Amino acid sequence: MDSWVRFNSQSQAKERVIRAAQYACTLLGYTLQKGGAAAELHKTIGQLEAHMSLTRKLLRLGNSVEALESAKRAIHLSDSVLRLCLTISHLNRAMYFACDNVLWAGKTGIISKLDMKKWSERSFRYYLFALILNLTRDLYELRLLIDCEARHRASKHPPSPHPGSADQLSSPSSSPVALNAPPVMLAGLRRQLRLLATVLYSNPPLSLDLLKNSCDIFIPLDRLGIYSTGSGFVGLCGLTSSILSILTLIHPWLKLKP
């Protein structure tokens, strides 16, 4: 099992480079169509994209095993939220890859008379649910880090009493709270935005994972017809997330753990 996981990880770089090229073709095809390019050129780009998609499916054969191994590791995490999100996410990825393998077998003719539309929708549903859980995990970790940063700042700079607070309490008729509510709310919003920017800047793995999953989620949403964005936007999102994935392979410290 360990040998297979090591062998499978070596093909991930090739798969992600081809994924980037596939979504680049999607974006290029949309651009050519909008620019009024020749139909023959647009057809060639579409065929190239289809070939790349089939090649990726071949490279992902057996990825279900790796996803199941990841689920076995995640089930032992001490944090209950991370344990739930990551375990179910990896199980959905395993089902997504299994459906993807069936689609590859159908497109290559190994399985005849396969309902490609049904299996494709089934595959994207598993993919969508896995991405929702990944985003939930990202937001959960982001919330924890923001709370930690807020406590750290509060310990360094404890709040001081507002001058004249006693006067305000002795004369409630002036209603200072009502008059100062909007500035106080804006100051609180700016403080939260600064905390968010600080946390994201100081945690590149979390920032990249959040951005990657946010881009990826539009792909199954569009394919399932839940939220149609068009091939151009899907191509841009897929290309962006693929480049971010390649970065985590080149620089492993950028990969979010666990």
Structural class from helices and strands?
Answer: mainly alpha
Q: Give the radius of gyration.
A: 24 Å
What is the quaternary state of this protein? Answer: single chain
Q: What's the tally of helices?
A: 11
In whole angstroms, how far apart are the ends? Answer: 20 Å
Query: How much strand content do the residues show?
Result: under 5%
Total DSSP E strands: 0
Helical fraction: over 70%
Q: What is the makeup of the main sheet?
A: none
Summed over residues and divided by their number, the pLDDT gives a mean of 87
| Shape estimate | globular
Give the SSE order as H and E letters: HHHHHHHHHHH
Query: Low-confidence parts lasting 5 or more residues at pLDDT below 50?
Result: 163-171
